[in-house]
Amino acid sequence: MIPRAGSALRGLVVSAAMLAASLQVAAAAGPATTAQPIAVHAADHPHCVVEITRFAFNHPLAHGGDPVKLFLVIRNCTDRTIPITITEFGRMIPPCPTIDPIGSSTTLAPNQRYVPSPLKILVPSCNGVESMVAEVSSNGSLLAWATTTLHIRTP
């Protein structure tokens, strides 16, 4: 479940900002280097503070029992040090189980690119989609988030 962001009006404003940011990221990125879609969103900030530049599984399709890795790359767009909290979690898309939230914290140096160790997952035995979300926040404010999916086929 995704945490609620506040009033309905604020949600509409956030949604519009996220759509605009994802369109800018898609236009600037050019052709994708992975077969897997990524949706990147800036939250409440018209200018980049922290950006998720990669959030993707190493394989877009896997079978139940396969090991996969989920890669995340974050960039500090500012000239100041920023303490961040990273939370990765699954969204419920039956029949596949939801992955519980996994959190970590770090401090980004000015203009630093941060690449944590990949999240290693043993693919559940189901036929469906595992949808993952990454959120980056600082002092309780959501700065950026991204989503990605893994298609699962179990024989």
Can you describe what's shown?
Helix content is 14%, strand content 45%. The protein is built from 1 helix and 10 strands; from the N terminus they run αββββββββββ. The two termini are 29 Å apart. The N terminus is likely disordered.
List keywords for this structure.
155 residues, mainly beta, 6-stranded mixed sheet, 4-stranded antiparallel sheet, 1 helix, elongated, disordered N terminus
Topology:
Blueprint: H1 8-29, E1 39-42, E2 50-57, E3 61-62, E4 67-76, E5 82-91, E6 102-108, E7 113-114, E8 119-122, E9 128-138, E10 141-152
Parallel strand pairs: 3-10
Antiparallel strand pairs: 1-10, 2-4, 4-7, 4-8, 5-6, 5-9, 9-10
Largest sheet: 6 strands, mixed
Structure class: mainly beta
Q: What is the 3D shape? A: elongated
Structural Rg: 16 Å
Fraction in helix: 10-25%
State which percent range the strand residues make up: over 45%
Distance between the termini: 29 Å
Average per-residue pLDDT, rounded, comes to: 77
Outline of this structure?
The chain has 155 residues and is mainly β.
